[in-house]
Batch of 3 targets.
Target 1
Amino acid sequence: MTAPDVTITDLTVTFRRGEVRALDGISLRLPVGMVGLLGPNGAGKTTFMRVLTGVLLPSSGSVAVDGTELTSRGRRQEVRATTGYLPQELGLYPDLTARQFLDYMALLKGITDRRARRARVEEVLELVSLGDVAHRKVKGYSGGMKRRVGIAQAILNDPRLLIVDEPTVGLDPEERLRFRALLARLAGDRTVLLSTHIVDDVVQTCPNVVVIERGRVAFQGAVGDLATRAEGMVWHLTQPATAPPPGLPTVNVTPGSTGTTYRVISPTSPAPDAERVSATVEDGYIALMHGTAPERTQPGPDLRVG
């Protein structure tokens, strides 16, 4: 499988006869491998993913996978055949076994040859480490195992573009690590777009990140570069008060024997005893969301680095 080329050009989506602009002129070229998608609730991430999966037609602009336009109604089915999607809430059939569920999903994806379908189902079960328990009903699975069934159905058609929405929410730390490792293995020569509110998931798995806010791209580039958006503006402030300092974005709160230490974002020192510390990716994201990060010039829509 050759590397996919996913190009988004001036993508705009409006609702209510143009009164609500969910996406506002997004232009990107997604690289092969893991790409994080960050943004607050209501930023437009879900709309963006719905367009990429061919569920929603944009109001204007274009999305193309290997030159095939998703915005062409007649070609959307062709693109869907090369796209996999794991929504945040996937409706599983609890009384089916994992093997039965995946066989059914494979039929829906057009894998009609019985022998080929069975072979593909067994292949993806092994890929997500469920082969030994595939005979068990889904209702008896843990949350992490159900997510792995979800990713298995998303890759049945061996997609070139795989989109996953909040896949680690509610998982325990061990399951989160296992799922992140699975996504990294699946990336290979395909593009995997990971939408999440958990910044650490992006830091640990994604070389590149896109931040969407109010329907626009607020940041695009290497994930490490996001930290630089808060460089020189991150402070540790220890005080006896139990409430965070007013008016300052607070990244973290750590209670201690001498008081509570707040990790805050501020262009200038928030107090005489405040200690400046190095910025992390999460600091950069918080600074960006609160409008305290400096403007950054962006050299074009191509996310590819290195």
Target 2
Amino acid sequence: PAVAAKEATFRVLPGGTTYEASVQVTGTGYGFWGPGLMGERVPLQVEDLKVLGPAGPVDYREAGRGAIAFPEGNYTITYQVPVRDNHLVAIFDTPYAVTVALPEGLDVKNPLIGMVSPGGAVSPGPNETMEITWDRTDAVEVRFYAPEREILLTTFGTIWLSVAIVLLLPYFISWRRDGG
């Protein structure tokens, strides 16, 4: 029988500058890291870290850069991490069922400025939020944007399209006149 994937939830907070994570773990430790430019592990700047067991909070200790250790068991680890450039990346050692929740006003649907890693299903969530889910994955990547970015992109695109038409119009007129 297939073992159900552990669950991880990432909730981007209003404003899009921080996300709150809740990750199920089994074992004696956990590492907080993201990918660097060359794919290397880069420790995350974690805040408000809690390790929760069935009976409540559990003591943990630092175990090197970006890692913690705790007694053997099943836990839920919660923490917050600053978001850089509207880009959330999470990497796991084993497959997880992952949900990323975006608050009202943030979007991923425009492929020019938004992105969801393969396998992610985008759907509306409660209270005008957006949820992106993966059934089993060891990595998720989401690039989101605020409506102002989309308006800026549309405005910028419209201006450039207008400039291109103005610059190419004389070419097309002369091309038609020459029997092209």
Target 3
Amino acid sequence: MKILAMETSTLLGGVAVIQDGKVVAEESSQRQKSHTEIISPFVERTLRTAGLKLEDIDVFAVGQGPGSFTGIRVAANAGKTYAYSFNKPMVTIDSLMLLAEQAKASKLPVLAIMNAYKNMVYLGMFDCSGDEPQYIKGPAAIPVRELSQHIDRDVTVVGDGWETYHEYFPDELKKKMHLNSDFPNEPLAKTLGLMAEKRAKRGLTLDWKSFIPLYIRASEAEETKKGILISPLK
């Protein structure tokens, strides 16, 4: 099975080609504002490296979010266009679950926290003991100052939420949060592709019209219009 995976929901955007359970090509960029510009060249180059054409792809995999509203749409629009053009199915997986999948070696539950800006984080707590991470809590967007209310056990922490806000976490909360530098803090396209292949083999695909981004929060413009203020950190 041949999978083209596109993940652009965070600062790290990437494309990967998976074939029969192996990563045969991948490219990434750490510049979010350029995701629109790099998605097509990345697709072209990864396919060339893999010796494939778009019409050879069996499933188009797309990161569902949460994350950057603009970033999510970059991969979503590309994936939907390809799926429509070649009449192929899609698989979509959310960013928090991808982070948890990348930390499956943890013996503790995995807490994925991503910077949601305005002093908020996207949160997902996962049991990673099975074939695929399962939500214990979330997905949700919560103020940083309320994070303690959601963490009731020791966890392994992944995601850029720690780096962004940890100085504001109470000491009692930090004692429950364990770091491991071996686990990536961004959702990777290759992780998306490998998970998507497993799902596709179980028939867990959708058509391009059924794709729904996981935004969780309203856009900045909508929140400003509704008068939603930045929550204080303390």
